[in-house]
Amino acid sequence: MRMSQMLFSTQREAPSEAEAESHVLLLKAGMIRRLAAGVYALMPLGFRVFKRIENIIREEMDAAGAQELIMSALLPAEYYQESGRWDVFGTEMIKFKDRNGRDFCLGPTHEEIFAYVLRQELQSYKAMPKTIYQIQSKYRDERRPRFGMIRSREFVMKDAYSFDVDEQGLDASYQKMYDAYCRIFDRCGLQYVVVHADTGAMGGSGSQEFMVKSDIGDDTIVSCAGCGYAANSELAACPDAAASTETMQQMEKVHTPNAGTIEELVGFFGLGAQKFAKTLLYIADGKIIAAMVRGDREINETKLKNYLKCASLDLAGAADVRQATSAEVGFAGPLGIKADRVIVDKEIPAMRNFLIGANETDYHYKGVNYGRDFCSDDVCDIRLIEKGDPCPVCGAEIEIVSAIEVGHIFKLGTKYSEAMGCKFLDRNAKESPCIMGSYGIGLNRTMQAVIEQSCDKDGIIWPDSVAPYNVIVIPVGAANEEQMALAEEVYQKLLDAGIETMIDDRDERAGVKFKDADLIGIPHRITVGRRAAEGIVEYKPRRAGKAVELNADEAVVKIIETINV
Ligand SMILES: [Zn+2]
Q1: What CATH class is the domain 469-563?
Q2: Span 252-380 CATH architecture
Q3: For 264-317, how does the pLDDT look when each residue is reduced to its tens digit (9 = 90+)?
Q4: Rounded to the nearest whole angstrom, what is the distance from the C-alpha of residue 394 to the centroid of ligand 1?
């Protein structure tokens, strides 16, 4: 590709809208352009990277025996209504009516649709196993689109679905996808960890996520060097707390003017946050639920949601809090609260003489003890695991880091096949629901995750496997005929060898060309400069950074060997 003819522009300044290094680089390198919050255009250079990732995925899916097709992104409500997810997705689903008043949505994920279409194809056990996939746009109206393509409202996903006659079949199909995912992310040059994950709204019996460690990740993963345990923190079990041996004190109501937050209470009483028990109010499927954890802990909403088995869970607004507590926000406690249920974290019964809100503005109770002063039928693990907690499996020290989820695989079981009537006749002519698995990879996210792991102060450093072009040839002086002639010769030789190459034939200063080449992250650079008359060029790999002078033909051979390793 000749850069003089390419639709391409770079920016020197970081755009104000960008929040993450990889997002800044994508914008500065002209790979993406923003259309709306969480909606992006992929420009030619960015689209080439995207297509290479897509091809890697397609090759590995095909090699694993999966078959590609494409469903529609425009989908009628009825399939999601049949499975119950029309309501579960809530406002995240982009819903609308067509001209006849029929409900439609833009597909956020396609389990129902595959189950519906496949039920017409898989009527006998003889037709299975089957794994089917598509590479298609998905739509989710995220509350907070962030970090460019990491959390966007439109993105392309490779979603695959397996159909088996029994659990062993599912295990085998799942393992094939697991292995294919490892090859895909290896080929994309990503460092990743595979963690146990929550099955959440998807249902099913088991699930793993492919995670790329990064500060901008939405997920938190817990890992243990001792036993190899790795899980999404949403799922990680917290240890049982040792029971306090303090003597029980009298419970006493205390006037706490204007002390409604844990910080204010810590200041007011001069006690650590671990001496308090905080009560948060949620609306779970329309009902008010109170949830209690120690003052210095965080509630794990996934655990809470799974325990309640509810479809929706949101923090209650101020009006609901006032109604449930008869007080201003900040004074909620378990005594006399008007909530459907009070869910108590299992750490609370191990505490002694703690403080709680009194459900009265400006009042708290101190000297409170579970079992004597209040009880609940719902004592369970609802807190977030944190640094300092032991590994749930072996008790060793755990590491907690942020991560980007690039892939997710699920053993769905029969949830969607039951709901959608995707059934087959087994060997005994008995009707059974297909056993399903579902397997997703976010392509845009994978592309940006590569940058998160592979960049420096000058720009992106693409691995050869996904680079938009592998080589850039830069003639230093556009007006110098010798330099231009040798640059053209090298460019042509690389093209002839099937190497994706660009030549910076723009009438620009050398400094601009070098800066752009580094910013867009082309892995190999050949500079044709002052020694062009002798047939000598300079070769510089983007990553290692050290330039060497070589005879032009040697440079071409070296690059061909490096890329084809
Ligand atoms: Zn461990």
Answers
A1: alpha beta
A2: Alpha-Beta Complex (3.90)
A3: 999 999 999 999 999 999 999 999 999 999 999 999 999 999 999 988 899 999
A4: 4
